[in-house]
Amino acid sequence: MDKLAAMQAFVRVVEAGTFTKAADTLSLPKPTVTRLVQSLEAELETQLLKRTTRRVTVTPDGAAYYDRAVRLLGEIDELESSMSRAKVSPRGRLRIDVGSTVAQLLVIPALPDFYARFPHIQIDMGVSDRPVDLIGENVDCVLRGGEITDQSLVARRIGDFHLIICASPEYLKRHGTPLHPNDLEDEGHTVVNHFGHRTGRIYPFTFGKDGEKLEVHGRHALSVNDSSANLAAGLAGLGIVRVSTFQAAPYLASGALQPLLLDWCADSVPLHVVYPPNRHLSAKLRVFVDWVAELFARSDLIHRKCSLPKPKTEALHASPAMPAPAAALATVD
After folding, report:
1. Where in the chain is the domain with CATH 1.10.10.10?
2. Distance CA 260, CA 234 (A)
């Protein structure tokens, strides 16, 4: 029996909750994972797991063994990462998950620079806006916008997304231009609201000016939980929307959207790199976290605030073809 492989298989089964999920994350056949865990139990002469048809849980002995195994595997990873070769040229596979807008507009276009620096790191990137179970899905880290409410996770803040209020020229022709945030509450205006993935809670529009803070809910005909859909709704004239400045920029430039209430800044959204507390910050993960923090620190798109210039008048009367909507920036409920 390969005891190290058996230990790794056992840890993954505990974290994933089933042998099937553990086998998927380890890229091993399920029977192999089952055999490794059974061999480990036979070697230790104790039952580590309780099996049911739906889920696997740990026994008291299994829980104690898991805690020690996680620490030991982390020390082994640290030993390997500390070798001079790993310091000079980190290598291995990273599993990360990134919100769609961030992946499409910011991270993926910059990856040639990352691979030029670290050619031996392989990235498996999940691109989605759904909440990710970092431990259960064996994900090394995620990039997420919004406040981090799960205190069991380690989060490094690497920037802020600035939001801007926009509407299509067609919408403004029908409903008029709001001059104050409170105008969004009027019956004559409609907003496109955004609700949380987990909670379904509607996020209000928030504004700030000269120390004054306002929170506006507005009346919506459409509420979405995806920034891509939110942007598409704004472009279709379904209501006033708030989008990140980096996502809105090409549509403002083309005249497909018009910025509103520029003297009232919409709130910003914090961006974090998040990883589990028991996920050892290996050399390959450390260089990725540092690289993405550097990327966002120097990104002009990220630092654009609500003072974007208004589009030219002639552009507002044009009818440009709608570009493919940028994918969504995920928020953390």
Report:
1. 3-81
2. 13
